[in-house]
Amino acid sequence: MDAEGIPEGLPFLLDLDGRYDIELNRYFQRAQILAGPENTQRAIAYDLRSWLSFLWSNRGGKNWRDATGEDRAA
User: Fold this and answer.
1) Number of CB atoms found within 10 A of residue 32's CB
2) Quick one: average pLDDT of 55-74?
3) Which residues make Cβ contacts (< 8 Å) with residue 64, sequence separation at least 6?
């Protein structure tokens, strides 16, 4: 565990500018995510990365905070 209490090896995501999004990455610190196997944590990170890339590439550079029901349906 590091000085901020984040377990070693916990997945994290960077935005397209290479910045660490505290709010988004807080998701990985939830108890149910931490309790899961490491490969499950990686799979969740991969799925989120795919969703965020889709929003950026196919929905006009949209940020996850601005995603709508239409974006999820697409």
Assistant:
1) 7
2) 93
3) 24, 51, 52, 55
Spatial neighbors of 21 by CB under 8 A, at least 6 apart, are 13, 14, 15
Residue-wise pLDDT tens digits, 14-61: 877 788 888 888 887 776 677 778 888 888 889 989 999 999 999 999
Sign of the CA dihedral with 50 first, then 52, 14, and 18 last: positive
CA distances from 3 to 19, 25, 68 (A): 19, 16, 36
49 CB contacts (<8 Å, ≥6 apart)? Answer: 13
Using a 10 angstrom Cβ sphere, with 0-12 exposed, 13-18 middle and 19 or more buried, the burial of residue 55 is buried
* pTM (2 d.p.): 0.73
